[in-house]
Design brief:
This protein is of the alpha+beta class. It is built from six helices and 27 strands.
């Protein structure tokens, strides 16, 4: 579109908006305050629970012997720190304990020896024997028992060094144990990792320390909180995603490895000027917001928009904090047929809808159309559409047959066929018409409304809307 046509189109928009004040009031357009607020643009994706590798502990024998009994005898069994895992008959430990007792008794006997160095040498032998027991993984409480009772034991209890679950068990009943043999692998469940698969295009907005929330299929309706810990530098060449590791405290230990769910990383945007998304009308050449001036007047004002976050949209230019804007303006407040005519480039209606000159039935181009949706903005699924039809003088158009057509072109690259939704709107009085339609997808829809009376087109409008709810 050249500059002259664009100028005419904008003039048409402003003129129609000014003439639509009574229609805006008639359908009860609500308003909202333009405000500054802290925003966070969330990134949501699928996620799975995984073990925190820093909590993995191996239990290895440092002595030889034979397993005579097992308390931890199944995988995924929960054990507490200090709990007995298995009992081992070990002649090696028995001999080391007897050596310690002999050295201790000998040191006591030689403590009063008048020969220089004898007492000190005896004490050194006790220290060496004690160090030998420590090297064989004999805990301090066992050595204290040995000193207190003076009795060596042939069976030794191997205890869990940390609290966790038995993720691997190599120990078997009556199995011979050798020094260096791994018997168990224990894994703690707190903290725990959650691996979120983030699209390559969103990786630049994520960094360590950001807050994240996790929802698991196993616990519907519940939310777990954590932080971004690590971003995998390798992007999957097939899915074009990278794994982002979240760390959760998991104090209740309800999350276990392998669980599936979703994760949302909160990406702060700072404090921004925002309005409800339904307050912005996209015209094709820009965006408009309708600012309340008092006395039922609305001033159409060009705005520059930023990203949409949930139901809010960022305003970069055109509005000030504290102003009030109409929140029903996003879905047409005028007849686009008139706007197109003002620009000298009338756009044809969507497929299946006759143009004003195609049927030769005659069209009243002076008629005005105000069209809104509930919810606003419209969303994927069921929606209620309302229209107010008036003459140029503001009188309601009654007794018309009104059809609303919404169409979305096919998108072969995404494997999506074209969609068309037709809504037969019923008159509810005072030039108001209402109907229900189900949108099969979020995204951009072409909208056309045609009203006929006595075989003639008395009003028609075309516009577009962006429905929420995803594809």
């Amino acid at each position: 579109m050249n500059n002259g046509k664009r100028f005419l189109l904008l003039l048409g928009l402003f003129a129609l908006a000014a003439g639509a004040q009574q229609r805006v009031q008639a359908i009860g357009t609500p308003t909202a305050v333009v405000r500054v607020q802290a925003l966070a643009n969330p990134i949501s994706t699928v996620a799975t629970v995984a073990t925190d590798e820093a909590t993995i502990t191996t239990v290895t024998a440092r002595f030889s012997g034979w397993i005579v009994s097992m308390n931890a005898n199944t995988r995924y069994q929960h054990v507490n720190r200090g709990e007995v895992l298995c009992t081992i008959y070990s002649p090696e430990i028995y001999a080391a304990e007897r050596d310690y007792l002999f050295a201790a008794q000998n040191a006591q006997t030689l403590a009063a020896s008048p020969v220089a160095g004898v007492a000190a040498g005896a004490k050194a032998l006790v220290a060496d024997a004690r160090e030998r027991l420590a090297q064989l993984q004999v805990p301090g409480q066992e050595i204290a028992r040995l000193e207190r009772t003076g009795v060596a034991k042939q069976r030794f209890a191997l205890r869990a060094p940390e609290t966790g679950i038995v993720s691997e068990r190599e120990a078997l009943p009556n199995e011979q144990v050798t020094a260096g043999m791994r018997l168990y692998t224990l894994t703690a469940l707190q903290p725990i990792w959650v691996n979120a698969q983030v699209e390559e295009s969103a990786l630049g907005r994520i960094h360590a320390g950001q807050r994240a929330t996790v929802r698991m299929d196993a616990y519907p309706g519940r939310t777990f909180t954590g932080r971004v810990d690590f971003i995998n530098p390798q992007v999957n060449e097939t899915s074009r995603t990278a794994s982002v590791r979240l760390v959760l405290p998991n104090a209740s230990q309800e999350l276990t490895p392998g669980m599936y769910g979703s994760a949302t990383v909160e990406v702060p945007l700072g404090r921004r000027l925002v309005v409800p998304a339904s307050a912005v009308l996209q015209t094709g050449t820009g965006a408009l917001a309708f600012v309340a001036e008092g006395g039922g007047r609305f001033d159409p004002r060009p705005v520059e928009t930023g990203p949409q976050v949930g139901q809010q949209i960022v305003i970069r230019k055109g509005l000030r904090a504290g102003e009030r804007v109409a929140t029903g303006a996003n879905f047409l407040i005028a007849s686009e047929a008139q706007l197109s005519a003002a620009a000298g480039s009338y756009a044809p209606p969507p497929p299946g809808v006759s143009g004003s000159g195609a049927s030769g039935q005659g069209t009243s181009n002076a008629a005005q159309v105000a069209l809104t949706s509930d919810p606003s903005p419209a969303r994927k699924g069921a929606n209620t559409f309302r229209a107010l039809l008036t003459t140029a003088a503001g009188r309601p158009i009654t007794g018309a047959q009104v059809e609303l057509t919404l169409s979305m072109p096919a998108m072969p690259a995404m494997g999506m066929a074209g969609m068309t939704v037709r809504v037969a709107m019923q008159e509810v009085g005072g030039g108001r018409y209402r109907g229900q339609g189900t949108l099969g997808s979020g995204g951009n829809w072409h909208v056309s409304l045609v009203a006929r009376k006595n075989g003639k087109i008395v009003a028609q409008a075309q516009t577009s809307l962006r429905a929420g709810g995803g594809m």
